[in-house]
Structure formats: structure tokens, C-alpha cells
Amino acid sequence: MKLPTINKKATLDKDLKKFVRIEQATLEVGQQIVKAGIGLLFLVVIWVIATIGYYDVAFFPVTKNAAFVVAAGIIGGYMALNIGANDVANNVGPAVGSKALTLAGALVIAAIFETAGALLAGGDVVSTIKKDIIDIAQMPDAKTFIHAMMAALLAAALWLNLATYVGAPVSTTHSIVGGVIGAGIAATGLGAVNWITMSKIIASWVISPVLGGLIAAAFLAFIKFFIYYQDDMIRAAKRWVPVLVAIMGGVFSIYLVMKGLKKIWSPEPWIPFAIGAGAFIFFYAVVRPIVNKTAERLENRRKDVSILFTIPLICSAALLSFAHGANDVANAVGPLAAIVSAASSGAVDAKVGIPLWVMIVGAVGISAGLVLFGPKLIRTVGEQITRLDRARAFTVALSAAITVIVASALGLPVSSTHIAIGGVFGIGFLREYLDRKKRREKAEARRAAEAIANGETGAVDWGKQRRKLYKIRGRKLVRRKHLITIIAAWLVTVPLSAILAAILFAIFRLFT
User: How far apart, in whole angstroms, are the C-alpha atoms of residue 374 and residue 368?
Assistant: First the structure.
């Protein structure tokens, strides 16, 4: 009887592969533990800063409500970490996905400009209640207000942490809005909520991604039809790329004035648009000769033409990060500053000043969260939803700025996260539509050729043929798994944050 032979080499290779997988999994777990440890160390440092920062200039300790201030400082730092981990990915994800920036380069640029935006343009006064969603006059006392703000901040941070874990980019603004609503209702009842403002926020769930997707798809269609589909792409690029870059320069100039600098400068409404027009002319004059010179070294193919969008894309990532830091740092430090003010004065104010240590907590926390935990969401936005080249990523960045400007002019509260993700989905679905259309046209041409080859002299029922051709499906260029996950996360952000904040408020009231 012949015994079966054993392939020792195959067995050894299989064992080696298992060992490599175990080693990789162990390394990943170790890296996560190290990152969590660094994040915990950051919170410990905040504990020290909050303790020291709660002394006046004469170093006289103000002991009243000091424990609340220290606890709120730690919660605010935790919130800032989660903002960096989740929200900043929308600014740099498309640039990373298109290979215009490496992941390390994107982290460095975003960290620098997020911090600069928060510290230079974050403003020294913030509204304690985001977008006036509750009436603080109905708060019975300062302690109740402190409990409510701590509950709102912690609820928003916990939800952002969970969303980052499952890989869903969500709106930090909506998270803190939900937290404030839940804590406000728990503290004062339903009458405290400004339901008109809430209706606008709910409308923004639809308006933000749809508008961002439509604008991004429109610009991508323009690039395809006027550049990529031309026989001489280089000539077309020389004509239109300077115009597109100049549009981006003008739009981002308006965006920077309206959003990035709004807390330190409030110009007349016409000034940002005048600045934008001047920026358009300036960038067109500067970019056109550069594009003409660069295009001479390029081949007549899409990959080469897309190189022309590299520098504008990097600049857009930096400017989006600056504006994000200037605006969204308030989501972390606004409630924290309100708690510090209420704890110090014993009164509840609609607007409060921001102590320097509070602003540093927000700025450094966002950057730390980005570097430690941001890569996961950056890859999701830039690579896993749909494939991005530099032209597509350019349209996402441009649509984000334009949508925010249009919404601000109309008085609509929109989410920059929803806009950016909507832009990514918009160009993905446009690609699917064009791919399906191309396949149908090829099938129709093939059917016509077959009819001629077979000697079919009668009229072809093209209505019937087109009904058949309509069933031809193109490739799925947008991953439905991410689409479903992200939409579900968007829908539950406000209600889930609100419920969690109400529960936390009850716990704080019970034990403090």
C-alpha cells in the first residue's frame, strides 16, 4: 500500500504565511495600544494644564467648582482628539487618495494648518450654544448649565469615537448640536429648544451632500468633456486648467474671508466677493504661463494632464484645514470655555472669552487626534469610497468651498463633512453613469454592425433594442457598503448624541 506523499514545502509556506499574519496582527494591536497610550498621556497633560490654568494671575486658587473645570478640560481634550481623528480626513483625504500627497505629508500639512487656523483665526470669543439651538435663559442656575455642557461635550466625543471606529466620517457640528439638544431638554424641557434652527439643521442633512455632490460632478463633467475627451488634451488643458485653478483661487479667497477669518474680521458682504474676483484675475495671470510651460513636457494622456492639478490640490488641502481649524475648534472649546466662565462667575453668558489654555487644548488636541487616529478615515475618504485621481480630488475640494459659500450666503447651516463626502459620492456616481452610457453605446454599435453583417434589410426596432440595452449594467464604481454605513451614521448622529447627552446629564446630576 502506497502512503500519500506530504508536500513539506507547501506545508512550510502555509505555516510561514500564518506566522506573518499573526505577526502583522500583533504589530497592529501594539500600534493601537501605543496610540491609545499617547492619547491618554495627552489627557493627563490637560489635567495638569487645567489644574494650573484655574489660578488667577496672582496665583490665588479659585476653589469653587474647580473639579468641574478640570473634568471639563479633560473632556474637551477628548473631544478635540476625536475631531482630529474623524473630521479632518475630509480636508486631506482626496489629496491622499489621488496620490498628490503622501499620508505622512498630509498629516504634517493638516496638523500645521489646523493648529494655525485654531490659534490665529479661532477668535477670542465664541458662542457657548452652537447656532443658538437652546435658550440658555431657561437654565435654572450655573451648576445645571455646567452639567448640561459637560454632558453635551462628552456625548459628542463618545459618538465621534464610535463613528471613527466603524469608519464613518460624520459631522462634528451635528454631534455637538445633538449633545446640546439632549442635555438642554433634560435640564429645562422641550421648550428650551429652538425648533426653527433645528429644522434648518435637519434640512442641511440633505442639502449639504446633495449640493456638494452636484457641484463636484458638474466640474468633473466639465473636465471630462472639455479636456479629457478632446483629441488634443494638452491643448485643451492649456486653455481650461488656468481657468479652473483661477476659479479655485477666487473661491478659496472668498471661503477664507467668510469662514476662516470670520471670528477676527467681519467685512461688508461685498468685500469677500471683490477679493475673490481680484484673486481670480491674479491666479489666472500667474498660473497660465506655468501651465503652458509644464504642458510642453507632458504626453497627450489623462495621467499626464492630471499632474497639472497637483499643486492646486495641495493648496486646497492646506486652506481647508486652516478654515476647519478656525471654525471647528469651537466645537471642542466652546462648551469648555462656557464651563470655565460659568464656574468662575457663577453666571450663564451667551458669549464668553476663551482662556489661552483652553484654545491650546483644542488646537493641539485636533492635531494630535489627526496624527494618532486620523489615517483610518483619511484612507476611507480618499481611497475606499471611490477611486480618485487628481482631477477628481480637485473637484471635491472646489465643491466643498463653493457649497459652503453658497450656503452661507443663503443662511443655511451646512456640514463641511457632509459636503466633502457628498462630493466624493457625486463624482463616483457620475463615473458610474458615464461608464454605463459608454457600454450601452458600444453594445448599440455592435448590434448595428451585426444587423448589417446578417443582411437585415428591415428596419431595426431600436426602441426594443434600447430597452434591452438599458439593462446593461456598468461597473460599480462606488462601494455601496461605505455608502450605507455613512448615510446611517449621518441619520443617527443628532438623535444618538442627544439621547446619550440626556443620560449623561442625569448621571452628572445624580453623582455631583
Answer: 9
Q: Which of 434, 478, 427 is nearest to 218 (CA)?
A: 427
Return the sign of the alpha-carbon dihedral for residues 426, 431, 432, 433. Answer: positive
User: What cell numbers appear for 422 in the block?
Assistant: 457628498
Q: How far apart are CA 294 and CA 311, in angstroms?
A: 12
Confidence at 232, pLDDT banded by 50, 70, 90: very high
Q: Which backbone phi and psi does 48 adopt, to 5 degrees?
A: -65, -45
Q: Residue 325, SS3?
A: helix
Least confident window among 75-84, 116-125, 340-349, 353-362? 116-125
Distance, in Å, from the CA atom of 170 to the CA atom of 164, rounded to the nearest integer, reads 8
Q: Measure the CA–CA gap between 377 and 354, rounded to whole angstroms.
A: 30
Determine contact, residues 334/359, Cβ cutoff 8 Å: no
Looking at this protein, which amino acid is placed at residue 357? W
Amino acid at 483: L
**What pLDDT score does 61 carry?**
47
* CB 482 within 8 Å of CB 384: yes
- Distance in angstroms (rounded) separating the CA atoms of residues 332 and 334: 6
Q: What are 432's three cell numbers?
A: 458610474
Residue 217, pLDDT above cutoff 90: yes
Q: What is the DSSP string of 149-173?
A: HHHHHHHHHHHHHHHHHHT----HH
Query: pLDDT (tens digit, 9 = 90+) per residue, 110-147?
Result: 889 888 888 877 765 566 565 578 888 788 888 899 99
**pLDDT band (50, 70, 90) for residue 160:** very high
Of 171, 72, 118, 144, residue with least CA distance to 418: 171
Which residue has cell 451648576? Answer: 143
Is 0.85 topped by the overall pTM?
no
Within 355-389, residue ranges assigned H as helices are 356-373, 375-379
- d(C-alpha 205, C-alpha 491), whole Å: 8
Q: Which one, of 395, 386, 390, 397, lies nearest residue 435 by Cα?
A: 386
Q: Give the Å distances, CA to CA, from 310 to 91, 318, 401, 508.
A: 15, 13, 17, 50
Mean pLDDT lowest among 63-72, 207-216, 456-465? 456-465
CA 461 – CA 74 distance, rounded (Å)? 71
Rounded (5°) CA angle 239-419-327? 105
